[in-house]
Design brief:
With 391 residues, the chain is an alpha/beta fold. The protein is 29% helix and 23% strand. Bound molecules: pyridoxal-5'-phosphate (PLP). Pyridoxal-5'-phosphate (PLP) binds at residues 53, 55-56, 74, 76, 96, 185, 188, 219-221, 252-256.
Amino acid sequence: MDRNVETFRTLNLSIDISKLPTPIYIVDERLLEKNLKILKDVMDKTGCKILLAQKAFSMFSLYPMIGRYLSGTAASSLFEARLGFEEMKGKEVHIYAPAYREDDFDEIIKICDHIIFNSFSQWKKYKDRIKAAVKEIECGLRINPEYSEIETEIYNPCAAGSRLGITIDNFRDEDLTGIDGLHFHTMCEQNSDVLKRTIEVVDRKFGKYIKKMKWINFGGGHHITRPDYDIDTLIECIMYIKNKYNVEIYLEPGEAIALNAGYLAARVLDFVKNNIDIAILDTSAACHMPDVIEMPYKPKIVGAGEPGDYPHIYRLGGLTCLAGDIIGDYSFKEPLKEGDILLFTDMAIYTMVKNNTFNGVNLPAIATYNDEDGLKIIKTFGYEDFKGRLS
Ligand SMILES: *Cc1c(COP(=O)(O)O)cnc(C)c1O
């Protein structure tokens, strides 16, 4: 069978491949909904509220679906907050940022119902403006429990000298009037055993302050929708804090919402030989999957393996002039040919939001897939999207 046909059939995607524009992100609504059901189940079992952290996934054409399951959105900037406010109608809008710009704050007050501060000085600076607001806004402080189990420093909010959150030594009991909640975010792609150990530290260090709060936000980094995730331990952690302190619990995962729910489809354009076989694709690691270089990591491709798994080995490269625009080395059962479509997996999260047009490379189109409508192209991009940002 033709490789392309086989690939799409494996994923139960019925798509006219000859008409598929590439590169293209395809978010499978069936898989997204499966994730949302898992998250909703945690909400139903515990009474906690789960928010979409938009930093990981901001494809707002799907916000109505996400809003049917989750409690709202979490933002890390005014623009993200506005997106959540406008596109997930009637749901909660939470914001946290390491510092707020003076000229953003009036709009933040209009849009957000929960504002989390990174320091006592920011809280002090803005609290009168919040008090004067016409609507009720709940305020929180981000704490840094100085406990995390993240090995990659760039992703570790508790690394030595971190600017994210208030450490216990800098926490001031006397300034808590008007503060309704505490927020910590110390995890990254982790299971609930890490949460359990983190909660022990948060409880020990900050318990006397949690007592005075209405809510506590456990942040993101919970890989709840991963097959090996231990949901029972998550539920146990939520119920422990909820019952001990009589507070509401929020979680704001990003990855977990669209984990493994999307693909990036790209076509093979050409081949180059230089000791190894290299295939050039119509996508780019640097532009369309920057975490491949930044994190770094190697994405999986449907039907391909590590070098050695299958007989035909290729290095896959992007179409920018950056020497390091390499996705990685892969092996295939059959030799690749020009025009073959490769489907990179788990490409809904953190890729689309980090896209760029470096080197004048166009942005991938964005599509959804469901059983009723099949493939629906939501958006395509062009020259104006490249030019428009540059002067
Ligand atoms: C990044 C981030 C999240 C989401 O993290 P995921 O790893 O995508 O679940 C949530 N809250 C805050 C404050 C963040 O910075």
